[in-house]
């Protein structure tokens, strides 16, 4: 595999991030084992998000860096808030990936690491760039149909708004 070294490090970091929650799930905390069933949360149906207003945004340069061997891929784009209210980007989903997270790459003391981001706020008239080395979508467990040259749909989730579908172009591993 002829990948730039920093890309591989990035992907391995993502795998490390995944390992922790998976291990936690393997051994449920004792407290939940004794919780009565009728106290279980999350049983009510979620309100239909599609009935919410559409976010007034412009999204450009949306692309995914494809990686082989099931490695997590990065999703990048530029986003501008065209509305009169602040927007909070709180997540994303995609029919082409089983898991999508908001991440930020942080460089400190020569080491690059990724942190999970709960939300990215965009003031009215302002923009934000998701780009290598900074904010990115961490795209995990890709469908086999995701290949360089294809397109994937990723639905951006803004708080209080309907899912915002964006078409991303899948570029080869060496793209930047
Ligand atoms: Cu990441």
UniProtKB/TrEMBL annotation:
<dbReference type="InterPro" id="IPR036182">
    <property type="entry name" value="PCuAC_sf"/>
</dbReference>
<dbReference type="InterPro" id="IPR007410">
    <property type="entry name" value="LpqE-like"/>
</dbReference>
<dbReference type="InterPro" id="IPR058248">
    <property type="entry name" value="Lxx211020-like"/>
</dbReference>
<protein>
    <recommendedName>
        <fullName>Copper chaperone PCu(A)C</fullName>
    </recommendedName>
</protein>
<feature type="signal peptide">
    <location>
        <begin position="1"/>
        <end position="26"/>
    </location>
</feature>
<keyword id="KW-0732">Signal</keyword>
<dbReference type="Pfam" id="PF04314">
    <property type="entry name" value="PCuAC"/>
</dbReference>
């Amino acid at each position: 595999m002829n990948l730039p070294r920093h890309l591989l490090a990035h992907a391995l970091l993502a795998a490390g991030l995944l390992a922790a929650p998976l291990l936690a799930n393997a051994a449920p905390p004792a407290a939940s084992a004794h919780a009565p069933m009728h106290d279980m949360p999350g049983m009510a149906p979620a309100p239909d998000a599609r009935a919410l207003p559409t976010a007034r945004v412009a999204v450009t340069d949306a692309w995914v860096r494809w990686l082989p061997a099931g490695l997590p891929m990065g999703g990048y784009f530029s986003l501008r808030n065209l509305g009169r209210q602040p927007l909070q980007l709180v997540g994303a989903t995609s029919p082409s990936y089983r898991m999508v997270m908001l991440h930020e790459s942080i460089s400190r003391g020569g080491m690059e690491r990724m942190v999970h981001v709960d939300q990215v706020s965009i003031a009215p008239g302002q923009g934000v760039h998701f780009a290598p080395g900074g904010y990115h979508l961490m795209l995990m467990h890709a469908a086999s149909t995701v290949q360089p040259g294809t397109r994937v749909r990723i639905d951006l989730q803004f708080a209080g708004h309907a899912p915002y579908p964006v078409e991303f172009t899948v570029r080869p591993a060496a793209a930047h």
